[in-house]
TrEMBL record:
EC number: 1.7.3.3
Lineage of the species this protein comes from: Eukaryota, Fungi, Fungi incertae sedis, Mucoromycota, Glomeromycotina
Alphabetical list of NCBIfam families matching this protein: urate_oxi
Binding, urate: T58, D59, F163, R180, V228, Q229, N255
Protein species of origin: Glomus cerebriforme
Sequence similarity: Belongs to the uricase family.
InterPro entries: Uricase, Uricase_CS
Protein name per its UniProtKB record: Uricase
GO cellular component, one term: peroxisome
Length: 299
């Protein structure tokens, strides 16, 4: 008898791209999303016995996303829309025990034309995305877990950052500095505390996202940074102190290095306060990560 067994499984549809235009008379809004769905449940037979009788086709999942987007008033609020998608699969198919929903929302910024916001024209304002991951589970009751965040928020400041006092040994060549360019591409995710599914409608997801994004930008700009680690922790601390709905927040901050170019060999001074010519280095780069949490969360 074989000792091989199916330990875990899930399947679904990835890369479902969706655009919805919301029209209020001549004033239009545009929402562009990419959606991923993975289902868990009683699908073992499809793997172990080649029995597809309980398999929800991934093409059906794709169609479901477009249909729900047509019917939903929450497409702009990606957390709420993801919950709707997850609840649909849990309630429609009794053999589905868990639905994982990921949504990324892309930035379309309304154009300013002749000093006024245009009613139907937009521009892609950077590669930053707003993201959410929602898990809807069938247990004794329906349980919802929500993670939100942003990715690829590229920032840079030309002063107000130092790095010195770090451990030195025989392998260390990096010089200390009391002033440098600081740049990073910020990825941040935060987890919501949801003791009861009925409380989800009380969470102002859009306001929290906007406020945390602004906290990140304000802190990055104004903190006289002793290190990326110290600035990261301050960002997280301020976000958690402001929003009790959040139980933890995770950051990933890769260094985007800009080093002074050596012009001494050409008889030009480009050191200290005379430094104004730099060259960017993409790899290798430092990567600073941390998760900051509170001891107790509440809505």
């Amino acid at each position: 008898m074989s000792d091989v067994f199916l330990k875990e499984q899930s399947y679904g549809k990835d890369g479902v791209r969706l655009v919805k235009v919301i029209r209020t008379d001549n004033w239009h809004e545009i929402v562009e999303l990419t959606v991923r769905v993975l289902l868990e449940g009683n699908f073992n037979a499809a793997y172990t016995k080649a029995d597809n009788s309980l398999v929800v086709a991934t093409d059906t999942m794709k169609n479901t996303i477009y249909i729900l987007a047509k019917q939903s008033s929450n497409v702009q609020r990606i957390e709420a829309f993801a919950v709707e998608i997850g609840q649909h699969f849990i309630s429609t198919y009794s053999h589905v025990s868990k639905a994982h929903i990921w949504i990324s929302k892309y930035k379309w910024t309304r154009m300013l034309v002749n000093g006024k916001l245009h009613d139907h024209s937009f521009l892609r304002d950077g590669e930053e995305t707003r993201n959410t991951k929602v898990i809807v589970s069938r247990k004794k009751d329906v349980v919802v877990e929500i993670e939100s965040g942003l990715k690829d928020l590229l920032v840079l400041k030309t002063t107000g950052s130092a790095f010195y006092g770090f451990l030195r040994d025989k392998y260390t060549t990096l010089p200390e500095t009391d002033d440098r360019i600081l740049s990073t591409s910020i990825d941040a995710t935060w987890n919501y505390y949801i003791p009861n599914i009925s409380l989800i409608s009380q969470i102002p997801f859009d306001d929290i996202f906007g406020s945390i994004r602004q906290i990140i930008l304000d802190t990055f700009s104004t903190d006289n940074s002793a290190s990326v680690q110290a600035t990261l922790y301050l960002m997280a601390k301020l976000a958690l102190e402001k929003f009790q709905q959040i139980s933890s927040i995770h950051f990933e901050l890769p260094n985007k290095h800009y080093f002074a170019y050596d012009l001494n060999r050409f008889g030009l001074k480009n050191t200290g306060k005379d430094t104004d010519i730099y060259y960017p280095i993409s790899d290798p780069s430092g990567l600073i990560t941390a998760t900051v949490a509170r001891t107790k969360s509440k809505l």
